[in-house]
Amino acid sequence: MAPEINGPPGVICAGLAKTWPGGVDAVRPTDIQFAAGQTTALVGASGCGKSTLLRMIAGLETPSAGTIEIGGEPPAQTLRKAGLSVAFQDPSLLPWRSVRGNIELALSLARRPVDRAAIDQLIALVGLEGFADTRPAQLSGGMRQRAAIARALATEPRLLLLDEPFGAVDELTRQQLAQDLPRLWEARGTTTILVTHSVTEAVMLSDRVIVLSPRPAEVVADIAIDLPRPRAPEDARKPGFAAHVDAVFAALSQAGALRDRPLAAQ
Ligand SMILES: Nc1ncnc2c1ncn2[C@@H]1O[C@H](COP(=O)(O)OP(=O)(O)O)[C@@H](O)[C@H]1O
Ligand SMILES: [Mg+2]
Q1: C-alpha 143 to ligand 2 mean position (Å)
Q2: What is the pLDDT of residue 89?
Q3: The pLDDT value given to residue 177
Q4: Ligand 1 atom having least distance to the Cα of 21
Q5: Residue 263 confidence class, pLDDT cut points 50, 70, 90
Q6: Using CB atoms within 10 A as the burial measure, which of 117, 139, 222, 232 is most buried?
Q7: Do residues 158 and 191 touch, judged by C-beta distance below 8 A?
Q8: Average pLDDT for residues 202-207, to the nearest whole number?
Q9: pLDDT band at residue 79 under the 50/70/90 scheme
Q10: Ligand 1: which residues within 6 Å by Cβ?
Q11: Is Nucleotide-binding one of the keywords UniProt gives this record (predicted)?
Q12: Which atom of ligand 1 has the smallest separation from the CA of 45?
């Protein structure tokens, strides 16, 4: 059942579609609204078009059809005003700058004040205390991803787009981030759209999970995650949580998304 959307939608996609040059249909004409201040997870089979959808919302790919509005503006405008941040699986940090240097650059580009204490707080939040002055090459893949998350949060975007940002992060740190990050998003009222292949993570982090069909992506289920917050790792074993995980898996299964490559339960 579709959840109720309170307040003005943060992001409105109308008739959004993407056909790549060469003819690959990645996203079928799709209407999706993401409510302001909510966290929404997109799940679907590998290759179904999740990243394509997110990159269009980020203004990094041009739609073949349809429109995107972020608070009434096109993505390019939001991007220009530094109103949105992305953290993708490939963290794309500048190799010659430290973790702090990468974050400071993002702030300068966004014309935001560089507040050393606030940066240190963010670095600690993502578990990189002691690594502020380290360059990306000296960090593990998971640590680089966490640095990219800190960088994305630093500019306090209205819209945060995360594409499998914890892919290389170890399980314990992942659980810690799943507890800490939503607190920050909620305190700031950030609209967050998260792509993950972990159903448990989607349920843990989100107010709503949108299940996409195998390629070309279209919405097959829209599941409200009306579980209390804050949520802790041990909550994943409670019946209410498990019921939501089951509902997402059932929708994925019905859509044929589990046929080739099962999605991770963890
Ligand atoms: N830059 C690109 N050029 C051409 N085809 C692409 C490009 N990026 C993705 N695709 C194709 O679009 C489809 C969806 O890809 P993607 O959005 O990355 O899926 P997901 O993130 O769900 O795994 C795939 O068939 C992929 O090969
Ligand atoms: Mg992807």
Answers
A1: 20
A2: 85
A3: 92
A4: 4
A5: low
A6: 139
A7: yes
A8: 96
A9: confident
A10: 20, 24, 26, 44, 46-52, 215
A11: yes
A12: 22
Nearest residue to 135 (alpha-carbon basis) of 147, 153, 121: 147
C-alpha pair distances (Å), 213 with each of 93, 95, 128, 249, 258: 32, 37, 36, 12, 10
β-strand partners of 87 = 162
Strand partners, 194: 41, 162
221 pLDDT above the threshold of 80: yes
Banded model confidence at residue 91, pLDDT cuts 50, 70, 90: confident
**3-state DSSP call for residue 225?**
coil
Domains, in order of start, for the chain: 9-83+157-254 (3.40.50.300), 93-156 (no CATH)
| Mean pLDDT on 54-68 | 96
Ligand 1 centre from 221 Cα, in Å? Answer: 21
Name the DSSP letter for residue 233.
Answer: G
Q: Cα(51) to centroid of ligand 2, in Å?
A: 4
174 close to 146: Cβ distance less than 8 angstroms: no
Tokens of 262: 């099962």
Task: Give residue 197's pLDDT band: very low, low, confident or very high (50, 70, 90).
Answer: confident
116-125 and 171-188 helices, crossing angle to 10°:
130
Neighbours of ion ligand 2 (CB under 5 A): 51
What tokens appear for 217 in the block? 């992506």
Letter string b/e over residues 117-136, b meaning 16 or more CB atoms within 10 A of that residue's CB: eebeebbebbbbeebbeebb
